[in-house]
Write a structure and sequence with these properties.
This protein is mostly beta strands. The chain contains four helices and 33 strands. It has two domains: 168 residues, no CATH class; 227 residues, Neuraminidase. The longest helix has 9 residues.
């Protein structure tokens, strides 16, 4: 097969180690913004940007750090050497003032320390005057009445506590200065549209002989895909995750979208929505099995039956069934993942270490807890008398009966592959660079 599933948001999230640093930003269009940086990543020279903002007409100074549209993981941020400059060029340290309020999505906002309480450092250099925080963050200063300051200046950059994780490839953020608090939901939506790059250049992929990569589809045919499946007509069904974590950029709920190359020229030009629900928050799985469309949306594993086979969910004609429920981790990536079908006709699937307490259609109960989720069932035996920890791989009949674990103690294994002989292969997602790709020995303990 010679297509690739590439477009800007997909690569910002899934292939960010390659793509970051080649992104150029468009200005943030939001009222009150006095300064907006480009996207700052581990590939940015010096891991920082010089900040200059005209503050002559404001008494409110808001310093905002927004994640780069790809989650706030590893987004440790510093405002280094922040100062207020008057008309004569005299500089006054902002750190000499007390902020009115300060918040961060991880850790704490600290004076002269990073968000974890360690030393401030950008690109290997110590910072002796600054503010450490973590995206998403808002710091509000009330400037003195009738102040004579005309400009705010700082060096804004990624703290070493973030850049030292995942080889620096997970940190991405935008720094903003404004005269009012900004809408993070709108910011996130804007940041998802920041790159000028149309798509990742196909000729930069390293491929074995005999293979090629071509662009097949991109936005606006779909946005921020979390999972996909291909039906017998060659259409690609995509689960979208625009509402991942706190973004909420799609108030009508996330979508299942069908993308199609109708004219057969090798490039998709058409897409439509199969189903959209307000309860969809970044569903991580989509499987198409004949006219059954299986969506993994914690706490539920949902099966839609497209009775009239028009690739659209029609209320009153088509059917919707919650096959299983009780999976923890709604709107979290360590939760319920996608279904694949084995040669025995059973559904194979897995969930991450947010855990679960699920009962199948025959009353068989799975209890799977961990330090990360569902602690209340940790150590509690399931119906077979066994104790299952963390992420669990399972199979179940298509009618929801005979659900059984086939492996456990994963961190967060994503979609599994099942061979024609019934062998299961999986890749356990992890923070270090050595994710574990293994054959799954049935009833094995993966040891996380």
């Amino acid at each position: 097969m010679t297509f690739s599933w590439v477009q800007k948001k997909f690569f910002l999230w899934l292939v960010s180690p390659i793509f970051f640093g080649q992104v150029h930003s468009k200005p943030i269009d939001q009222a009150g913004v006095l300064f907006s940086s480009k996207l700052i990543t581990g590939e940015t020279k010096g891991h920082a940007v010089e900040v200059k903002a005209n503050i002559e007409a404001t008494n409110d100074l808001y310093l905002t750090v927004s994640d780069g549209g790809d989650s706030f993981a590893c987004d440790w941020a510093n405002w280094a050497f922040p100062r207020l400059v008057d008309k004569k060029g005299k500089e006054t340290k902002l750190t000499g003032f007390k902020w009115k309020s300060a918040k961060a999505d991880w850790g704490k906002v600290n004076l002269n320390k990073n968000c974890a309480g360690g030393s401030l450092k950008i690109n290997g250099k110590d910072i002796d005057d600054g503010i450490g925080t973590h995206a998403n963050s808002v710091i509000h200063y009330k400037l003195p009445k009738n102040h004579q300051f005309i400009e705010f200046r700082a060096l804004a950059g990624i703290d070493h506590g973030g850049i030292n994780q995942q080889a620096g490839r997970a940190s991405s953020m935008v720094f903003l200065v404004s005269d009012r608090e900004l809408d993070h939901g709108k910011l996130s939506k804007t940041l998802q549209d920041l790159p000028d790059a149309d798509h990742y250049p196909a000729d930069e992929f390293l491929l074995p002989d005999g293979l090629e990569v071509k662009l097949w589809a991109k936005s606006p045919l779909f946005y921020n895909p979390t999972n996909m499946d291909i039906d017998f007509k060659g259409r690609i069904w995509v689960a979208e995750g625009r509402n991942y974590r706190r973004r909420n950029t799609q108030p009508e709920g996330d979508r299942i979208v069908v993308v199609e190359d109708k004219d057969g020229d090798g490039t998709a030009e058409s897409s439509h929505v199969f189903v959209q629900e307000k309860t969809f928050f970044s569903p991580l799985g989509i499987a198409v099995v004949d006219n059954k469309i299986i969506v993994s949306q914690p706490p539920d594993l949902i099966v839609y039956t497209d009775v009239n086979r028009n690739a659209r969910f029609d209320q009153g004609i088509d059917q919707r069934e919650v096959l299983l429920t009780g999976f923890s981790g709604a709107n979290h990536d360590h939760s319920l993942h996608s279904v694949t079908v084995g040669p025995n006709g059973q559904y194979y699937f897995n969930h991450g270490n947010k855990g679960s307490q699920v009962t199948d259609k025959e009353g068989w109960e799975l209890n799977a807890g961990s330090f990360y989720g569902m602690k209340q069932v940790s150590g509690k035996p399931s119906s077979d008398g066994q104790v299952y920890n963390g992420g669990v791989a399972l199979r179940v009949n298509q009618d929801g009966t005979r659900m059984r674990p086939i492996g456990h103690n994963f961190r967060n294994s994503y979609e599994q592959a099942v061979s024609s002989l019934g062998d299961v292969f999986q890749n356990d997602n992890d923070d270090p660079q050595a994710c574990r790709t293994t054959w799954l020995m049935e009833y094995g303990n993966l040891g996380f």
